[in-house]
Write a structure and sequence with these properties.
The complex is a heterodimer of chains A (136) and B (617). Chain A has 136 residues and is an alpha+beta fold. In chain A, 27% of the residues lie in helices and 19% in strands. In chain A, a hairpin with a 2-residue loop joins β5 and β6. Chain B has three domains: 197 residues, Aldehyde ferredoxin oxidoreductase, N-terminal domain (Aldehyde Ferredoxin Oxidoreductase,  A, domain 1, 4-Layer Sandwich), CATH 3.60.9; 173 residues, Aldehyde Ferredoxin Oxidoreductase Protein, subunit A, domain 2 (Orthogonal Bundle), CATH 1.10.569.10; 164 residues, Aldehyde Ferredoxin Oxidoreductase Protein, subunit A, domain 3, CATH 1.10.599.10. Chain B contains 28 helices and 17 strands. Classes of the chains: A alpha+beta (136), B alpha+beta (617).
């Protein structure tokens, strides 16, 4: 269970992307975010929100055992990750992102920063705490 | 240098040469960014007398220090050049996501010069910059071109395009971006088209360094919180700028039938509420903006259904009431036609309304229009004329030079009702009953546009018949508002939701690391204002007071009906406004900056150049 999203109300402002990059990398750089807003304007008059739903399919795919789940959150251990990219291909949502300056894929870790400032309040609430305990 | 990428990208299309130049501290310190960079490069690099559609003109696409940074709506790109509409300095800004992307690609501004021998587009992927063939795009609509390039390159590329109007150098051709955002004014699309440049596509992966990240987070978070807790936010999210239409009508400022009237009896058919009920299918925002004033609409006409962003207020005013269309869906369809052809909706609405009034008055006939029944209220006529204009066919070839150009062809009677200043068509506030707003239009450096000083609310507050003392307010606005265009940030959050200017004053040092006070920044804005004026004075020996004069309609005809029926402004009033304005600016009685004024603003070289030419004393 990842971020609960009401995609139809996304306005494509991408504030979530820059908030994410600042929270996780301390940089004004939306290309280092674990979330992507993709325009479908020309055909469907809407945006897609691409973000990890913490399904965990990447865990088994990782040849270096660098990916694990705790409290319902899937994380990548940068120490173990070889940046081979297998998990990116395995992700059913296309929600693992790369950046030339970062030596591992970037993904949502449910830190909650984006939902705090989403102007439409459409990112959130985060997965309920009982579900996190179940995942433990 | 914090808040900046640190580089200027120069593209010489004639030589096929691409180079990067360091962004200098001197440029940043004197001109901030955005419009300031545009003014600097246009003044210093476009030779006097240059053809706006010739290779010597420069197209400057500039971001600013706030663009792409974590703060509300750092989304604005300024595009500057010598304008084909006015022959003077021109600029126009566009929201969306281009401004930040330029900085993520490592550049603060692009300077385009020369002309490519074949239709081309500029491809920028971080440090990889190429001039690529656009022969497969030439002739295509502006929106279609963006769609095709997004398919070819990917959604992460931010793209600016022109339509057929830009290719054919229509003097009010716009530059399109992010599906439905435009740098609409001053014919920047024609300058781009004259360079055979169909599009610019840019993607970057680099961060924007700031001087004090903790300070930025603290100021920006307060700004976002204040915006999101503002009870007024919801109506902006719901209706966007379309909510302005009925208000402008209620205060008798809504351009109606070529500005003959300022009150539209059928305004309910154009209201934001009706728009939301009948045609809006989604909301759309620029970068990091909680207001999301962009409204995605579906509109049908002549058996065709289209998706369009808009109409916002200006489009509704100039195409809606000014051409006397009766439904917001008709306006939305006309908006789509303009966007795809690459026509500025403000000028296009003016031009078509001008044709309609000339047709009504018998100044022109069906023989001139090529058979088009150009009557007020006809969307058919609007669409047919727009296509002719974009292709410069038939009557369209005359209208492609704007109302100023067309009125030269059609004679004195038409000049009285050609609604422009300096060659730029008037935007959405009829101002006979708003003297400071009238002065704002008369003195705006790019021509009759409201963005530099939107002071109609000041007229309402202090008295609509008051003349004296209003010039100072216009000057004040003309320094504050353009600062936003220098920063690369939208001003709606301040203007409409009252976000205090103090926040922006606090942002500047945490982003840039420079210790300028707000007053220091206002002086820079005044410097830029005088530089664009100096461009005009250098450009034309006869430039002066007459160029700051409104069309005769506004002082010859009292308001015919509506809440302000009978209200009038006289030539004496207009002269009083201008006298006070020139005095407040330190300009002479002919509207030319005095040498001492230029020197006070650090423009010694400019003062010396104009003095030697005998243009100032």
């Amino acid at each position: 269970m990842g971020i609960d999203i009401d995609v139809a109300r996304c306005t494509g402002c991408k504030l979530c992307q820059i908030v994410c990059a600042i929270a996780n990398f301390g940089e004004n750089n939306p290309k280092k975010a674990g979330i992507r807003i993709v325009s479908r304007l020309f055909t469907e008059a809407r945006y897609d929100i691409v973000v990890c739903d913490q399904c965990g399919e990447c865990i088994d795919a990782c040849p270096s055992d660098a990916i694990s789940m705790a409290s319902g959150v899937v994380t990548i251990d940068p120490e173990l990750c070889t940046n081979c990219g297998v998990c990116i291909g395995a992700c059913p949502n296309g929600a693992l992102f790369t950046h030339a300056e970062v030596d591992h894929p970037i993904k949502c870790i449910l830190c909650g920063e984006c939902e705090r400032l989403c102007p439409r309040g459409i990112l959130g609430p985060l997965a309920a705490s009982d579900q996190r305990e179940v995942a433990d | 240098m914090y808040g900046y990428a640190g580089k200027i990208l120069r593209v010489d299309l004639s030589a096929g040469k691409i180079s990067h130049e360091p962004l200098t501290e001197e440029l940043v310190d004197n001109y901030i960014g955005g419009r300031g960079f545009g003014a600097y490069y246009v003044y210093n690099e476009v030779p006097p007398g240059a053809d706006p559609c010739g290779p010597d003109n420069r197209l400057v696409i500039a971001s600013g220090p706030f663009a792409g940074v974590f703060l509300p709506s750092g989304a604005k790109t300024s595009i500057s050049a010598k304008s084909p509409a006015t022959g003077l300095y021109g600029d126009s800004n566009v929201g969306g996501h281009l401004a930040g992307e330029l900085k993520y690609a490592g550049i603060d501004a692009i300077i385009v010069e020369g002309r490519t021998p074949v239709p081309s587009y500029l491809f920028i992927d971080d440090d990889r910059v190429e001039i690529r063939s656009a022969t497969h795009l030439w002739g295509k609509g502006a929106i279609k071109t963006e769609e095709v390039l997004k398919e070819e390159l990917g959604d992460e590329f931010q793209i600016a395009t022109i339509g057929p109007a830009g290719e054919n150098r229509v003097v009010f051709a716009c530059i399109n971006h992010d599906f439905g955002r435009q740098a609409g004014r001053c014919g920047m699309g024609a300058v781009m088209g004259s360079k055979n440049l169909k599009a610019i596509a840019v993607r970057g992966t680099q961060g924007v360094p700031v001087a004090d990240m903790d300070g930025l987070k603290s100021v920006a978070t307060v700004m976002f919180r204040e915006l999101m807790q503002d009870p007024g936010l919801k109506i902006w999210q719901d209706l966007g700028l379309a909510q302005v239409t009925t208000w402008a009508n209620s205060i008798a400022a809504l351009p109606t039938r070529n500005f003959r009237e300022n009150f539209y009896e059928d305004v309910n058919g154009l209201s934001g509420e009706l728009m939301k009920e009948t045609i809006v299918v989604g909301d759309k925002a620029c970068f990091a903006c909680p207001m999301a004033t962009g409204k995605l609409c579906k509109a049908s006409f002549r058996g065709k259904t289209v998706l369009v962003e808009g109409p916002e207020y200006e489009t509704t005013a100039l195409i809606g009431s000014n051409c006397a269309l009766r439904s917001i869906e008709e306006v939305a369809f006309a908006n789509y036609v303009c966007d795809e052809l690459g026509l500025d909706t403000i000028s296009a609405g003016n031009v078509v309304a001008f044709v309609m009034e000339c047709f009504e008055k018998g100044i022109i006939t069906k023989e001139d229009t090529g058979g088009i029944e150009a009557k007020f209220g006809s969307l058919d006529a609007f669409c047919d004329l727009a296509h002719l204009i974009a292709r410069r066919e038939g009557i369209g070839n005359i209208l492609a030079d704007g109302v100023a150009g067309a009125s030269k062809a059609w004679g004195e009677e038409s000049s009285r009702i050609a609604i422009h200043v300096k060659g730029l068509e008037w935007s959405g506030y009829e101002s006979r009953g708003a003297p400071s707003m009238m002065l704002a239009y008369m003195t705006c450096d790019i021509g009759a546009h409201h963005n530099r000083a939107w002071s109609v609310t000041h007229d309402i507050a202090v008295g609509r018949d008051i003349i004296k003392g209003k010039a100072a307010k216009v000057v004040e606005f003309q320094h504050v508002r353009p600062l936003f265009d220098c920063f690369g940030v939208c001003r709606l959050q301040w203007v409409e939701l009252g976000l205090p200017l103090e926040h922006y004053a606090k942002l500047y040092p945490v982003v840039t690391g420079m210790d300028d006070s707000w007053e220091d920044l206002l002086v820079k804005s005044e410097r830029i204002w005088n530089l664009t004026r100096a461009f005009a004075v250098r450009e034309r020996e006869d430039f002066g007071r007459a160029d700051d004069w409104p069309p005769a309609r506004f002082y010859e005809e009292p308001v015919p009906d509506g809440p302000l029926a009978g209200f009038r402004i006289t030539e004496d009033d207009l002269n009083t406004l201008l006298d006070e304005y020139y005095e407040a600016r330190g300009w002479d009685e002919n509207g030319r900056p005095k040498a001492e004024t230029l020197i006070r603003l650090g423009l010694e070289n400019v003062a010396s150049e104009l003095y030697k030419m005998g243009r100032i004393s």
